[in-house]
Each structure stands twice: as C-alpha cells, then as structure tokens.
Specification:
Layout: H1 5-12, H2 19-27, E1 36-40, H3 44-50, H4 55-75, E2 80-87, H5 95-118, E3 122-126, H6 134-147, E4 154-161, H7 163-179, H8 190-195, E5 207-210, E6 229-232, H9 242-253
Parallel strand pairs: 1-2, 1-5, 2-4, 3-4, 5-6
The structure holds 3-methylbut-3-enyl trihydrogen diphosphate (2 copies) and magnesium ion (MG).
One 3-methylbut-3-enyl trihydrogen diphosphate binds near residues 43 and 44.
Length: about 260
C-alpha cells in the first residue's frame, strides 16, 4: 500500500498544518507526486488593484507567496519547481513597473538565498540573461554558485524567458553545430532539440499550475508542456498557499495520463 503524504511528513516531523490541509494530505500518495511542477504566478496586479493599492504591492506579496510555496515543495520532496518570473513579453509593461520587478528580483535573490541554501535548495535560471540589468545577473550568478551542490528542490526561475525564443535559440545553436560538422542534418531530432533548451537537465513538468483565472500558456515552456497536465485556478497569485497547491496535486493524482496510448 503506497504511503500517503500526511504519514510521510509526520514521520519526518514536519508539522504546522491545519485540518483541511491534513485532509488533503491524507488523500495524496507520495509515489505519484509530480517530480517537476511548472508555475505561472499570475494576478499580482489585480490582487493589488482590488485593494486599491499600486500593482507593485501585489508583486511584493507575490514574492512572499513564492517563498512559502518553494519551502513547501521542498518539504514534500518535489524535485523541480519552474516558476515564471518575467517573460520576454513583460518588457512591454511601463518602465516603472519593469524597473520595480527587476528591483524585487534582486532583493528576492539576495534576501532569500541564505534561506534557500540552508534548506538544501538549488537555484537555476532559464531565459536570456544577456539583456538583464547587471545587478540581476550578478545576483543570479551568486545564487547559482552558492547553491550549486545542494541536493534538495531545484528552483528554476524563468527570467526574461520566452518559449518561442528558447526554441529558436536551440535551432540556431544546432545550425551552428551542423555548419561546424559536429552534427549532420539527419541527427536533428527531438532529443537533440531538448539538449539545447534551457531546461536540458530538468526534463518536462508533469503538472502546470496557472493562477488568476487566465487559461493560456503565455509563451511558457512551449516545448516542455507537450504532455503536461494543466491546472487552472481563479486564486490570484499572492493568495496562493499550501492548500491550493495540495488541491492541484489532488487533481493531478486523479488524472489518467495516456501520452497518446489507450
Ligand atoms: C504576474 O502578475 C507577475 C508578472 C507577470 C511579473 P501580473 O503583474 O501579470 O498581474 P495581473 O495579471 O496584471 O493581475
Ligand atoms: C505571464 O503572465 C508571465 C508571468 C507570470 C511572469 P502575464 O500576465 O505576463 O501574461 P498575459 O499577458 O496575461 O498573457
Ligand atoms: Mg498577468
């Protein structure tokens, strides 16, 4: 009989859950949790607007929500959490908002890296770092460096990330290698493509969660999500907590994944 999440956490001495969280954890089998979860953290702006506050306040609370979800994913032994932090299309926002998002990213990386490190969490990034402000790049570099030997959760932050750009970049790199004679054209297949994606060492997510009621991918992990289970919730990102994650996991465990078979 497979072990349920509740018993496994109790054995580890992890506690502090309320009744409804416990109820969900009693329904979840630890051998059928997704290894890799992708997360589109959406709705920060609307969360703030609902409270008559500037959008940036929503981003601040969003960062707090992320911190808690990261810790929880680590506790329940999720292996990889890929979070969409800034898309290649988010540059279209007003400069003041973009600047504030960059500032928050730097703060988050600098402030939380010790906590991530203490909890054995490894930082990774996906996206084009070249055009990001130098402070963001150095915070990322430092975070990756100090956490590189950690063996717990991999927190993969998608930063200046776009799925179409990622695929075009992979094609460009492969074309270059064909030109140099490293590969011949017949060798180009999906495995080779995957080797040239940002996520080459991470594999595909089994579950994608998007908050805020939008039901689209917004250019996130287009290649990797081909057979991923999708979970959409109306909760705005700053309100998303453990219970919502547990609900998504329960929904995931009820699904039958067929991958084109029967
Ligand atoms: C998600 O929240 C955070 C980022 C895109 C960086 P939004 O800022 O998109 O919030 P809404 O969708 O406008 O409410
Ligand atoms: C997706 O959210 C990007 C991130 C969460 C970073 P957006 O708010 O940018 O997506 P759209 O514009 O609603 O599709
Ligand atoms: Mg949005």
């Amino acid at each position: 009989m497979a072990q349920v999440l509740h018993d496994s956490l109790r054995k580890k001495g992890v506690g502090g859950f309320d009744k409804s969280e416990e109820n969900l954890m009693k329904q979840l089998y630890i051998d059928n949790l997704p290894k890799h979860i992708a997360l589109i953290m959406d709705g920060n702006g609307r969360w703030a607007q609902k409270r008559k506050m500037p959008r940036n306040v929503g981003h601040k609370y969003g960062a707090e929500a992320l911190k808690k979800i990261v810790m929880f994913c680590n506790e329940i032994n999720i292996q990889i959490l890929s979070v969409y932090a800034f898309s290649t299309e988010n540059w279209r926002r007003p400069k003041t908002e973009v600047d504030m998002l960059m500032k928050l990213l730097i703060e988050y990386l600098q402030r939380e890296i010790d906590l991530l490190n203490r909890n054995n969490i490894r930082l990774e990034v996906s996206g084009d770092m070249e055009y990001l402000p130098v402070e963001v790049r150095s915070a990322v570099q430092k975070g990756k460096e100090v956490s590189k030997f950690n063996t717990g959760l991999i927190l993969n932050v998608a930063l200046n990330y776009g799925g179409r750009d990622e695929i075009a970049r992979a094609a460009r790199q492969i074309a270059e290698k064909v030109k140099n004679g490293e590969y011949n054209i017949q060798e180009i297949d999906k495995t080779l493509m995957e080797k040239h994606l940002y996520t080459s060492s991470l594999g595909d997510p089994e579950l994608l969660i998007r908050t805020s009621g939008e039901r689209r991918l917004s250019n996130f992990l287009l290649w990797q999500l081909a057979y991923t289970e999708l979970f959409f919730t109306d909760i705005l990102w700053p309100d998303f907590d453990r219970i919502h994650l547990l609900e998504a996991l329960c929904s995931y465990q009820k699904r039958e994944r067929r991958f084109g078979g029967i």
